[in-house]
Model the fold of this input.
Amino acid sequence: MLALRRRFDFERDAFAFPNELLCEYRVDPASGEMRLTRRTPRPRYVLRCFVLAKAARQFLYHARFEPAAPPCDDATYRRLIQAVLRGSVRRPSPEERAIVIPGFAGLRELSAAREVLVKAACGGAWRSYLQRSHWRMIFPMPPAHQERTAVDLLAALQGGDAPIVHVLRFPSLTINHVIVLFDGARTASGAWFLAYDPNDPERPARLAYDRGGRRFSLPANHYWRGGPLGVFEIARRWYL
Done:
């Protein structure tokens, strides 16, 4: 694979807006279970975690931002964004084929200033359902698989890449989500990873790997009660 021109920087390369949630999530203090309440009115930009994760990497792989250049009109930005999103999510383009985005320092700035335009270009929620990799969810992810996954993810990060990982509990689907890793390191007990979570563009998520139990875990947040989960990388091989 071609070397990336730059590493993923959370403050520069994440979207400014979140993938919204259909429900409010609350932990029942008596049972420890997560309780869901439908949000009213229904949020408009929902079920797009896969859309945003893949698009963020497409901008990393195929866009070059030039903040000193004069900004364009919406029609030009729409054309440039669409050109970026036609690029492969699995491999970066060479430097000479990068799509130049003038007037902004990165995706966060662009998506804050042109939110409506960027959302429209990224596409609908159906793109989160029609994922090539979804078949992998139903097959076991035993400890040996999770150990290999941790090793592979650390190697990818060390090489400067930004792996996209599906995090889930199956068959319960108490979590069925995707995040983009951008940093990580081995520890005495396993490894830690920092990630861009499309549900929360304000702060990085922290994924942990425990070598003793050979399993991943994600701490509690506003949509997940916290605990162990399965992890596999997507948007890398042709079949995932």
